[in-house]
Amino acid sequence: MTVNETEVVVVGGGAAGLQAALVLARARRDVTVVDGGEPRNARARAVHNLAGHEGVAPACLLELARDDARRYGARIVRDAVTEARQDGSRWLLGLRGGDAWRARALVLATGVIEELPPVEGLDALWGGDVVSCPYCHGWEARDRPVAVVGTGERAWRQVLLLRRFTGDLALLTGGPAGFDGERLAFLRDAGVSVREEPIARVVAEEGRLSGVAFAGGDFLPRDVVFAATSRRQASALPAALGCEIDGAAVVTDRTGRTAVPGVWAAGSCADPALTVAGSAGHATTTAIAVNDALLDEDTGLTP
């Protein structure tokens, strides 16, 4: 096994990981990104609400970000971390391909996974006509027939947001909605169609959403579905390192520092609600904190 030396390993090559690498590389740190190539938004048609890159394809955005990081000396290693352990004052990471990297600091930018409601057909259209974030995709759904599929607080917030984009809105819960009658009455009074009967499947024609079929035989034509997803950590690595996990988030301070010495978390793995732009901003703060910690370590003095 070849053990390579670097100052910082960033695990994850999405928006957060590449932004952290860019900031650290421009601070003249030796930084290595280990990227398993599975970004959260890989299936989305476009990235929105990112000034200067509005509407760019996710793959294109990441290629631009990789080029930026490499320009300042960052390495991009296409591989996956399979093990991690402390090696003296350093961290030693083993990769699936057989190599290993030893680093002074780790930045976890491993993201989260969106878990869809258990409705047949949602996954096949995920990232296209099935989405989850009204801030990311509400504009594209404006004035079109839209359904929210799901229950509970997430579905409630989605419906409230989407009322600003369309007057043809349905909440499809597939059973009890998961919130009180006062909220249901509010939605019905606001013109939102609330249907709690079982859902059979989401129907597509030639790869595009045509509507939602109910178990009782009814069919509701729709152009877009917003799924009330749940979230979980995309990687087992944060927990394996001993990081505290609260729900779907790695617990950190405001800079991204975890309770594990030498380990930071950036982007959606630390705050699952972050968009691409938010993840990049969070990663900038984290990268600066990592560099500051290394500066203090370089002096050998206690700050």
Features:
single chain, 303 residues, alpha/beta, FAD/NAD(P)-binding domain, 2 domains, 5-stranded parallel sheet, 26% helix, FAD/NAD-bd_sf, Ferredoxin-NADP_redctase_2, flavoprotein
Element-by-element helix/strand order? EEHEHEEEEEEEHEHEHEEEEEEHEEEH
Question: Can you name the CATH architecture of the largest domain?
Answer: 3-Layer(bba) Sandwich
Q: What is the arithmetic mean of pLDDT?
A: 95
* Helicity, as a percent range: 25-40%
Total individual domains: 2
Radius of gyration: 22 Å
- Which strands sit side by side, in order, in the main sheet? 4-3-2-8-21
Topology:
Layout: E1 3-5, E2 8-11, H1 15-26, E3 31-35, H2 58-71, E4 75-78, E5 81-87, E6 90-95, E7 100-103, E8 105-108, E9 112-115, E10 130-131, H3 134-137, E11 146-149, H4 152-162, E12 169-172, H5 181-189, E13 193-195, E14 199-205, E15 208-214, E16 219-221, E17 224-227, E18 230-233, H6 237-240, E19 245-246, E20 249-250, E21 263-265, H7 276-299
Parallel strand pairs: 1-7, 2-3, 2-8, 3-4, 8-21, 10-17, 11-12, 11-17, 12-13
Antiparallel strand pairs: 5-6, 6-7, 9-18, 14-15, 15-16, 19-20
